[in-house]
Each structure stands twice: as C-alpha cells, then as structure tokens.
Design brief:
about 70 residues, mainly beta, 6 strands, RHS_repeat, YD, RHS repeat protein
Amino acid sequence: MRLPNVTTLTYDQAGHKLKQTDGTGATTSYAYDLCGNVVSVTDADGATRTAAFNAQGKQIGAQDANGK
C-alpha cells in the first residue's frame, strides 16, 4: 500500500539527492557532475532537463525537456 503523503528520498555518499519518490510512486531522478552541480533532472514522466557548468561552477548552458 502506498501512502500519498509520504516522500522517499535517496542520497549518495556525498549527500547528493539521487531520487525522490512520492506516495504515488512518481519518481524524480538527479545526476551530478564531479563538482556536485546538478546536470540533469528526470521527472516521473521521463522528461529530462539538463545543465552544463564551466570549471568555476558557473552555469553556462541549460536545456529543458523540449530541447530548448
């Protein structure tokens, strides 16, 4: 039985959130670069947003799920 008001979070050893699952089973996944910047987020519908960062950690690009 799933509880709609319960959210489960999964973290890696560095403390980065890897996965968030709500009570309905909808999952959002996160990926990081070596500096710990979030470089992609994939939602429960499979839509992925991405970001790129330079060596100083400044965001230099982004793309939404529609490729824009």
